[in-house]
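Bench log. Compound arrived from synthesis this morning; before running ITC I wanted a structural hypothesis for how pyridoxal-5'-phosphate sits in the protein. Inputs:
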Amino acid sequence: MLPPVPPSKGAPARPASEAGRRSLFPDATDAEWSDWRWHQRHAVRNLAQLEKYVLLTPDERAGVQETSELFRIGISPYYLSLIDRDHPFCPIRMQSIPVRAEARIRPGELADPLGEDKTRPEEAIVHKYPDRVLFLALDTCSVYCRHCTRRRITKGGEAELTKEQMRRGLEYIRRHPEVRDVLISGGDPFLLSEERLEELLAPLHEIPHVEMVRIGTRVPVCLPMRVTDSLARLLRRYAPVYVVTHFNHPKEVTPEAREACERLVDHGVPVENQAVLMRQLNSDARIIRELSHALLRIRVRPYYLHQMDVAQGCEHLRTPISKGMEIIQQLRGHTTGLAVPHLAVDLPGGGGKVTLQPDYVLERGEHETVFRNYKGESYVYPEPEQTDCSCPYDSVWQTRRWG
Ligand SMILES: *Cc1c(COP(=O)(O)O)cnc(C)c1O
Ligand code: SF4
């Protein structure tokens, strides 16, 4: 156990979800509300259940009906309690309740937008980059995000990996010494039982060439009560384990979410965030800045801001590339560097991620480079006379390093 730690600055006195909880789930006891399995059992999974809690717009009702064969609905009571029942553009609502546009597949949209199935040597493994792999552990989530680009998996039908598939995934990593980083994803790995999760983390920890593990999860956002002390201790035992979570709007950074993230960090598990840029949901520099600041206050580091993938049924949420660049330009220099995520485009068809940033170079010369700064003023950087950048000590270091 950890010694008690003081709360970090500015914790709100009363959970933001409390009002929503009281009006939507008045009968839930405190013990039930803090039990993640209760939330899983009481998740809203169809139109009839949803209509008990939210007065749907005609577009949403048709959206639920028309996407019923295409992608699941699932909203934890906790996440539902954050919803604005009066506004269809509420970010919680837009991320969890489908609209009709989601049922339309547009030209150019792909079932497998990142071309993962071409680089999937085992059921559990996507190996696209030289030194790291994605380990797909299961197909279930605490909330099914309307912007999910891995919906070919999360729509069901791939189920939790069998012991045999998991064994083969681990065997693949053992046979590939170039793999030094394993990113466990799905679905949401934190929906696995701790025993199951340990069956994955323990053998990975034993593989000498695996230097680090990342776990991609939306649990801190959608089911924060799942982050128990016992889960945090489990992760810490297999350090270095990084948790990569997925907040998209400051409305999601509630006291419960904060407690989940701070519990991880307090146990020595760093937490990073990958947000997805979505039109009319967070496609504004003010919102992304507020999100980044809210995350840093709870010790979560903004990592990527993703341009929406060309997944089927997501076009209505896509922003023009220029919007992301404009947002980064409005952050860089204007606020803490740690609050500026990398703007990433995962290239359709399997090209992998590239990052974009505004161009600050005005002129590139042999003797100097001319930049503009964040205020638009120009500055000259003189080039050095000598340009040999080889590092003579490196051959020594490579053969004689300690440890
Ligand atoms: C995003 C991704 C990774 C990790 O990329 P980083 O840039 O290292 O965060 C690894 N494998 C696949 C297939 C990915 O899509
Ligand atoms: S939590 Fe992740 S994998 Fe699951 S539905 Fe949301 S985006 Fe998709």
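What the model suggests: Residues 136 and 272 are 19 Å apart (CA to CA). The mean pLDDT is 94.
ITC booked for Thursday regardless.
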